[in-house]
Give the backbone structure.
Amino acid sequence: MAVPKKKTSKSARDMRRSHHALETFNWVEDKTTGEPVRRHHVDLKTGMYRGRQVIEVKE
């Protein structure tokens, strides 16, 4: 079984994890409402996805 020979320092650990940060989302403008929406996601305000009504919206 593989066992580390020396303890990993906090600095080395944190530098390794520096790439784990959250990335920004790709926002696009909705064609009908003009509001920014995430790509490939259902618009929760209108319930539309790619021009189709996919979920019922509570009023």
Observations:
- The chain is about 10% helix and 15% strand.
- The beta strands are 27-29, 36-38, 48-49, 52-53.
- Residues 10-16 form the longest helix (7 residues).
- The mean pLDDT is 89.
